[in-house]
Amino acid sequence: MLPTISIPQHWDYPRFALEQRTSDGIILGFYYYPNGTELAEQFGGGWRYALMPHKNSDELFHFQENQIQPLTPEELLHQITGEINFYQQQIIILQQQLFAITEGSTNG
Questions:
Q1: How do residues 48-84 score in pLDDT, each as one tens digit?
Q2: Is 12 helix (H, G, I), strand (E, B) or coil?
Q3: Can you tell me the distance from the alpha carbon of 79 to that of 6, in angstroms, rounded to the nearest whole number?
Q4: Strand pairing report for 21-22 and 61-64
Q5: I need a labelling partner for 105 at 20 to 30 A (CA). Which of 31, 56, 72, 90 fits?
Q6: Cα–chain center distance at 26
Q7: Helix or strand or coil: residue 22?
Q8: Following DSSP, what letter does each residue of 26-84 receive, concatenated?
Q9: What is the b/e burial string over 43-75, where b = at least 16 CB atoms within 10 angstroms of the residue's CB?
Q10: Is the pTM of this model over 0.85?
């Protein structure tokens, strides 16, 4: 069963999705300040997003929805292609290590 998120009908729908890549990082979470609440009066109502700048980061940044810039299709393609190339190189290295181990055990 897939997890479901229910959003009250009187709230705006979030513009961004979990794990979406943006110019500021990857969206890890989001929360909402409903209009008429103290938090909304103090900070502005609407959606807030928690972003991690990159996957090896230990930092988390919080942005209002209007502060987030989505990636262009070209930027997204470049990012994903770069990650695929990185992981393909890692797989090749691991395969070489595995081959060295199995060859060493059959020759020894």
A1: 999 999 888 899 999 999 999 999 999 999 999 999 9
A2: coil
A3: 31
A4: unpaired
A5: 90
A6: 3
A7: strand
A8: EEEEEEEE-TTSHHHHHH-SEEEEEEESSTT----EEEEGGG--BPPHHHHHHHHHHHH
A9: eebbbbbbbbeeeeeeeeeebebeebeebeeee
A10: no
